[in-house]
């Protein structure tokens, strides 16, 4: 509210400083927002590619698995699945894109060779191997998708906050500050006018007083000379 | 810090991932999904060793509102959904909100 501030010169100076700072911050944040959106567009494209790859991989993986189950039976497939010893692990590192920390996921032991799988070669058929292969591939794409999508989520949150800040500065803080500044300026001007008026009044009064005193003195002088004449 | 991948879904869905070596999985039979899926998903999301959660897109429908929102917006662990046409549904909404345009429109 504009009326909350005291119309003093000191406050005016403080508000002018704040306006300058806010404007600078607003410009910087605007640039950050635009930069983030540009980075985001790049990632979005990447994400869409990964998504379509993911869907395609999922379909083939499902197909091969269904094939394996149809040919080998559910039990054999489940048995093989339960026998696995090596487990994929992921490690996350972070990367910084314009102040947003995005993860970089690295995986290990996703792709395995036949003898690493642990379900034995004799007991299983090539179809199970194929299904396992397809799912390993799918997992790799999933890891990639997770990385890209996490980055997207983080950047979106950052874009949202930056946008909110820019808008708060542009549509709330700066107008308020400017209103305050104007209010103080007008008040100060009014005070100045009042002061001038007051000075004029005083001057008039003084002049009047001086004139009266002069007239009185003259009158006195006149009476004095008149009495002297007598 | 090394983490693992977790899979949540019907037995059919998780078998394939087990073949690829995924150790953490929650199997919920299709009939029990409305009752049990919520619990399974929240359990997985609370597990600190899990870095990525894989689910089928259709299964998200069975989740209650709260759990679904946590799952969709969670960054660690990240949810990756498979199947379904919408792709990342939560992401799409978020893009619409943050950028102002629907960038993921099918063209």
From TrEMBL, chain A:
Belongs to the V-ATPase D subunit family. Residues 44-71 form a coiled coil. The gene is atpD. The keyword Repressor does not apply. It is found in: Cell membrane. This is A-type ATP synthase subunit D. GO terms for molecular function: ATP binding; proton-transporting ATP synthase activity, rotational mechanism; proton-transporting ATPase activity, rotational mechanism. Residues 205-230 are annotated as: Disordered. It is a peripheral membrane protein. Keywords: ATP synthesis, Cell membrane, Coiled coil, Hydrogen ion transport, Ion transport, Membrane, Transport. One of its GO terms (cellular component) is plasma membrane. It comes from the Archaea. Residues 212-221 have a biased composition (Acidic residues).
From TrEMBL, chain B:
Signal peptide: none annotated. It is found in: Cell membrane. One of its GO terms (molecular function) is proton-transporting ATP synthase activity, rotational mechanism. It comes from the Archaea. GO terms for biological process: proton motive force-driven plasma membrane ATP synthesis. GO terms for cellular component: plasma membrane. It is a peripheral membrane protein. Component of the A-type ATP synthase that produces ATP from ADP in the presence of a proton gradient across the membrane. Belongs to the V-ATPase F subunit family. Has multiple subunits with at least A(3), B(3), C, D, E, F, H, I and proteolipid K(x). This is A-type ATP synthase subunit F. It comes from Halobellus salinus. The lineage of its organism: Archaea, Methanobacteriati, Methanobacteriota, Stenosarchaea group, Halobacteria. The gene is atpF.
């Amino acid at each position: 509210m504009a009326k909350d501030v005291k119309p003093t010169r000191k406050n005016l100076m403080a508000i002018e400083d704040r306006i300058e700072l806010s404007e600078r911050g607003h410009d910087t944040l605007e640039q950050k927002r635009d930069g983030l959106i540009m980075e985001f567009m790049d990632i979005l494209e990447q994400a869409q590619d990964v998504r379509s790859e993911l869907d395609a991989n999922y379909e083939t993986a499902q197909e091969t698995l269904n094939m394996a189950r149809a040919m080998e039976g559910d039990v054999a497939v489940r048995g093989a699945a339960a026998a696995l010893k090596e487990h994929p692990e992921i490690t996350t590192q972070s990367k910084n894109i314009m102040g947003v920390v995005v993860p970089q996921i690295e995986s290990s032991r996703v792709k395995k060779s036949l003898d690493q799988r642990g379900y034995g070669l004799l007991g299983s058929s090539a179809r199970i191997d194929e299904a396992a292969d397809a799912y390993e591939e799918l997992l790799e794409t999933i890891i990639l998708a997770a990385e890209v999508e996490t980055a997207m989520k983080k950047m979106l949150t950052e874009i949202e906050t930056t946008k909110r800040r820019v808008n708060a500065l542009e549509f709330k803080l700066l107008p308020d500050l400017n209103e305050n500044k104007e209010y103080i300026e007008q008040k100060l001007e009014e005070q100045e006018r009042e002061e001038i008026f007051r000075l004029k009044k005083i001057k008039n009064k003084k002049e009047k007083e001086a004139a009266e005193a002069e007239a009185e003195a003259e009158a006195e002088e006149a009476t004095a000379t008149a009495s002297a004449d007598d | 810090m090394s983490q693992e991948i977790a899979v949540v879904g019907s037995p059919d869905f998780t078998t394939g991932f087990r073949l690829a070596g995924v150790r953490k999985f929650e199997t919920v039979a299709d009939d029990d999904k409305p009752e049990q899926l919520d619990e399974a998903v929240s359990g997985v999301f609370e597990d600190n060793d899990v870095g990525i959660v894989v689910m089928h897109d259709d299964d998200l429908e069975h989740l209650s509102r709260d759990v679904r929102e946590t799952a969709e917006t969670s960054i660690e662990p990240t949810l990756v959904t498979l199947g379904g046409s919408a792709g990342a549904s939560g992401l799409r909404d978020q893009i619409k909100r943050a950028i102002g345009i629907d960038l993921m429109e099918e063209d």
